[in-house]
Amino acid sequence: MIIDNWVKLILNSLYDGILIINEDYIVKYINSSYTRITGVKRENIINRPLLEVRPGARLIDVIKTGKELLRVPRKEGNSEYVVNMSPIKDNQDDIIGAISIVTEINDVYKLTKELNKSNKIIKTLKNRVKSIQKSKYTFENIVSEDPKSKFTKGMAMKISKKDTNILLFGESGTGKELFAHSIHHESNRKDEPFIAVNCAAFDSNLLESELFGYEDASFTGAKKGGKMGLFEVANKGTLFLDEIAEMDYGLQAKLLRTLQENTIRRVGGVYEIPIDVRVIAATNKDLLNLIDENKFRKDLYYRIAIFPITISPLRERPQDIIPLTTIFLNNMQRKLKRRLEFSDTAKRLLLSYKWPGNIRELKNVVEFSSNMTNGSIIDINNLPKTLQQIGIKNDLISIRPLEKVIQDAEIREIDKALDKYGTSVEGKKLAAKSLGISLASLYNKLSNKNDYTNNSK
Fold this sequence. Notes:
Helicase, Ruva Protein, domain 3; elongated
């Protein structure tokens, strides 16, 4: 077997190791990579019988059988490699030798391990991101005791499974984001991201880069390598555009094109990126009036308002007020670790109030009142002053003589002192001392208290 210099030059340039034997099993050639991988020196192997220098070599079997041997694992010291062996045939198809191609796999193993490690980290991060991006609320979280809210909730549930864009109308604080979360959770996209963005929280340029992303060096201050936009993050899922009426008129055109073509183009980019996103938009403004004022695009309106849902203000669904109050009060009981309830008079005042701030205002009132009462009963005097003034105007709060107000205050303090020290003689002495009165005065006030209580029944 003759291997000319041109062939040797080619073989010697390969990264894989090469060993060639003739039909008599004599080693005729190895390249430099073979020496590097196996550690075998050229002078110790060339023109010597293979089995003499490489006991157990299977290249002999290739000549004997005429069949290839592929992906045979071998190890030399710390070096692991894979050997592919093939017979060498002449023009008459006679076997005149065999060739081993040695591929080092240490680097491949290390790379594979690193890739596997990286893939695990990426998978963990993806799962964490998905959990963060999932909807937080379901339709079970939406209180709907009033007929109006029952109808609205039913409409939202009906459209959830349909893969169409939705526009939520409603005053601030009516629960538009709660509906958006619930619609996503009920949809076929529930296992994919739910991304919420408040359009009023960004100026026009910043909102554009947030929604559509940007390419590397597309503007001053852009991150190296660019940034993925929220449309890409929400791919296969839902993008909730709250306060969409605040979006710049020029940016509305880009949003319209995205909804029409189902593609986005990053800021500074030239390529269209396909996306599959359901859009739920929300506003507390009359978009039709804004269209007349040339502040909102008519074509965009009809693209996002394929299925409009109007969420009624709390004043128009009074049967939801007490159930919502109960939910908020239960949360405060857990937070303050004590029993709480509204008096009947306080409940009547809650029902008579118009709630301009809607559910958000009701929640704030419950929290305020819970912190204002020292006992377990939340009465009118524990409510915010604005509600108390409404109560006075509606005769829900009567004006009492100062003498009775003082008597009530004394009774409350006496009860607190007796609760603390007890009703034994020694307890009453301590109670009187804490109240700053004599024991005789305490007995006298207890007697008056009993008369006052009996007369009040």
